[in-house]
Amino acid sequence: MNQKNTISVKGGENLKADDVRSIMAVREREGADIGIFISLEEPTRGMVKDAASAGFYESPNGKKFPRVQLLTIEGLLSHSQRAEHPDYEPDLNFKKAKQEAHGQQKELI
Fold it and tell me: Vertex 88, ends 10 and 11: CA angle to 5°?
């Protein structure tokens, strides 16, 4: 099972709740599990409220992650924020190869 994220980056001023609603719509349309919104400015109260209304994504291992996450450039660069998503888990992210039949190795020459 592959987990899919959608990312939106806004560099201008005057953030508004419509910006979050836009990534929510794109996340749904694209079938993404998580939407990540990155901006230069702090999100408004309306943006935080809309992001929270999207609920949580539950990974196959049972961990929950916010469906829409609001991050700032400053928070990412200072390491005080980080996108939350299922980390690398080989048994969840990759198919296992079939085991080869045991036998004698054939000669190459």
Answer: 5
Asked whether residue 27 is domain-assigned, the answer is: yes
Least confident interval from 37-46, 60-69, 83-92: 83-92
Q: Where does residue 47 rank: exposed (0-12), middle (13-18), buried (19+ CB within 10 A)?
A: buried
Full domain range(s) for residue 64: 1-69
Tell which wins on pLDDT, 28 or 92: 28
| Phi, psi dihedral angles at 46 (to 5 degrees) | -65, -40
User: pTM of whole model > 0.90?
Assistant: no
